[in-house]
Amino acid sequence: LVGTIFNNIETSKTPDEIRTYIQTIAGISRSVGHRLGRELKRIIPLFMTFCDNPKYAEDTEMLENCLQAFESFVLRCPKEITPHLDAIVGTSLRFVKHDPNYADEDDDDQMEEDEDEDQEDEYSDDGNYSGDDDNSWKVRSGAVKCLGAVIRTRPEMLNTLYDKVLPQLMSRFREREEIVKMEVFSAFKDLMRQSQGRSTDVGDAMEEDGSDANAGAGHAISKLLDVDKVMKAVHKQLKDKSFKTKERCLQLLRELIVVLDGGLSAYLPTLITDLSKCIEKSAKTSLKVEALTLLCLLIEKHPGGDLRQHVTKLGPSVLACVSDSNYKISAVALRVCGRFCMATFNGGRLLQQAGADALVGDMYNATFGRLSSQDQDLEVKEAAIITMGKMVACLGDMVGPQRLSACLPVMLDRLKNETTRITTLKVLSDIANSELKTDISAVCSDAVLECSTFLRKNDRALKQAALTTLRALIASYSASIAAQLYEAVTKELAALVSSDELHLTHLSLQLCSCMAVHAPKEAIPLVHTHVLPKCIVLLHSPLLQGAARSSLKQLYATLVSSPGQAGNFKGLLDSLLGIVYNGGAQLSRQSLSSIAQCVSSLCGPADKAESKATVERFIKELSSAQASTSEQVKQLLLHCIGELGRESDLSGFSLETVVMASFASASEDTKAAASHALGSLALGAIEKYLPYILSQVKAQAEYRYMLLQS
Asked: What does each C-alpha distance from 7 to 15, 33, 400 come to in angstroms?
């Protein structure tokens, strides 16, 4: 089929026939993809001759069809198109400024003319040229789309694209046809996005040119990009009458900030001025949303930026947007307020240094109005909760106790609402974790009670958020929480300690440790009663590992190290050893290792005399083990000795003899435990045990494999 079409193209005498065949091949490419690839070595040179032929220089439709075909080939035949990419990029760059009906006399120098920014654009609607019948824009659009396809699919060409394509795209920011201008902005954004995935290569390119090898990727990209020229071009386009152009400029700036990870500190005054015009009352809704989104990102990515003089200027416009009837504008404006609350300058809070106490009050009133209102979109509700949380966490002293007493009950009400409770939980956690430690004791007990009820809900995300929030509240406000609430929380935690859901187990055990530290009198007896029996069951599971096991070890260490709890050491130790000593089901090696690690965690913070007595006990029991002694008991003792030796220096004990004796066991698991124990002992006392292991490798040929494992 392709061969027939190709032959017909070569023999066609009229442009209409040629255009039809070109369209047909492009359509086939879009349908069959890479299967057309083997024919590209014939097709592309022929299409290039049509593009280069002066005879078709003004045949807009044919040029457009060729460029559309090139775009399809780039997207659908990525492997076969590779040898032809340079030619396609070159042709596209030539046609991206194809405008035979307009003489562009100053194409290269226009971008560098700073003094002309305020004069009328040469492509404005008031010019002498009327393009009602001009279709050349279709060629320029096709060329830009083809370049966009190359940018999106060829990350390995990034440096070439920066060098050759980027300047041409920037020069076309002043494209007179809006459709084409939108395509130019889209291609530029695609290049920015591609840079995020290829930042290392860009950095390597800069190093090859002699730059500092440690220069950051953002710095390297800014050098290749010429940020100053981009900002001047965008600033000029932001003065355009078309709101679509302004929107695309703001989207482009957003991509630029992300790829540079900030990097626009020097341009903040100009940007803020431009953004303030975009969020005026008369601006279109979509433009306001884009401007506010960019402002939010601008504050986030420029921590410490000097925005003091701009805060009071932007404040009224942003607060007016908070009260806007459009939910999208209101939600984004609330996020901007939240960013202002978190912003810092010179180590202090931005709003405080700007002397914006009045603005903080106005911001609180606007946010509280949205927070307390019931009949609004969920996105606005969540944004209001988050913003109020940031205000309380970061500016609680500036907000004042009177306003706090008004907003905290509303926050508690949102915590009880099914649609907003997870958002409110995260906000309460942020408030509790903040350095300011704002006084929220008025709602602490009610919040803890509500969180305890969430732990029995069949909602994993809700349980996770509730556990995190409870931990933060108890760590910061334990004195404000009613004593009886600890029992309710502990009972719910006990139900979550299970090998079925290890992450929730991890969070639950972390919370138990937190309660034991911050409310030992109330919490520790409850943990012993309700949680530790579940922990003993958990230690039977071969699935226990990772964060859950680390949290369990931390809990045991906390229970021993808490004031007045040293006497619990023996009881806790016996309960752990009793899992194996009391018989029962055969445990896996993983379970024995977990028990041994918990024993080691108990001994770490315990009194030195008790730790020493424990080691001597293990040595004695292992040395006096009879034939009737369970192999699991021996394995547990070996694991315990190994874990204790890993954490502390046990060179003062003669452990090597008793461990080596276990190499003669008939059980392979006991041999493996002895090997692990000897290697672990060497970690804590390498000067004694490493030479011993090496000497035994030479002397004990029958145990050499086990010793090498050690």
From this structure: 15, 21, 83
* Residues facing 345 on adjacent strands: 348
What does the alpha-carbon distance between residue 40 and residue 35 come to, in Å, rounded to a whole number? 10
The predicted model scores a pTM of 0.81
Residues 6+ apart with CB under 8 A from 580: 587, 592, 595, 630, 632, 633, 636
- In this structure, the number of other CB atoms found within 10 A of the CB of residue 53 comes to 11
Q: Is 345 helix (H, G, I), strand (E, B) or coil?
A: strand
CA distance 358 to 376: 27
Angle 397-401-404 (CA atoms, 0-180°, nearest 5)? 95
**Beta pairing partners, 348:** 345
Token output for 97: 């400024």
User: Quick one: three-class SS letters along 656-703?
Assistant: HHHHHHHHHCCCHHHHHHHHHHHHHHHHHCHHHHHHHHHHHHHHCHHH
- pLDDT given for residue 565 in this prediction: 63
Polymer length of the chain: 710
Cα 202 to Cα 218: distance, rounded to the nearest angstrom: 9
Joined together, the tokens standing for residue 493 give: 């935690």
CA distance 581 to 100: 93
Query: Which range, of 100-109, 129-138, 430-439, averages the lowest pLDDT?
Result: 100-109
Q: Could you give the dihedral angle defined by the CA atoms of residues 203, 209, 210 and 212, in that order, rounded to the nearest 10 degrees?
A: -20
pLDDT interval class at 364 (50, 70, 90): very high
Q: What are phi and psi of 107, to 5 degrees?
A: -70, -40
Q: Which two tokens stand for residue 502?
A: 């290890």
Would you place residue 119 in the very low, low, confident or very high pLDDT band (cuts 50, 70, 90)?
A: very low
Q: Which two tokens stand for residue 541?
A: 């599971």
Q: Would you place residue 557 in the very low, low, confident or very high pLDDT band (cuts 50, 70, 90)?
A: very high
The rounded distance, in Å, linking the Cα atoms of 517 and 596 is 24
Report how far residue 388's alpha carbon sits from residue 226's, in angstroms, rounded to the nearest whole number. 39
C-alpha of 520 from chain center: 36
Query: Residue 505: which of 514, 496, 513, 516 has the closest Cα?
Result: 496
Q: How many CA atoms lie within 13 A of 155 on its CB side?
A: 11
Question: In which residue are the tokens 């009886």 written?
Answer: 484
Among 355, 381, 360, 379, which Cα is nearest to 370's? Answer: 381
Report which secondary-structure segment, H or E, holds 403.
helix 401-415
Half-sphere exposure of 212 (CA within 13 A, CB side): 7
Whole-number Å distance between alpha carbons of 363 and 648:
56
Type and span of the H or E element at 344: strand 344-345
Concatenated DSSP letters of 14-48 = SHHHHHHHHHHHHHHHHHHGGGGGGGHHHHHHHHH
Question: Does 609 score more than 50 pLDDT?
Answer: yes
CA distances from 476 to 415, 509, 521, 555 (A): 19, 18, 17, 19
* CA distances for 40 relative to 46, 62, 447, 610, 676, angstroms: 10, 18, 68, 81, 63
Q: In which residue are the tokens 């704002």 written?
A: 438
pLDDT score for 133: 63
DSSP 3-state of 347? coil
What does the DSSP 8-state code read for residue 585? S
Q: Is the pLDDT of residue 215 over 60?
A: no
Query: How buried is 430 (Cβ within 10 angstroms: 0-12 exposed, 13-18 middle, 19+ buried)?
Result: middle
d(CA 399, CA 409): 15
- Is 434 in a helix, a strand, or coil? coil
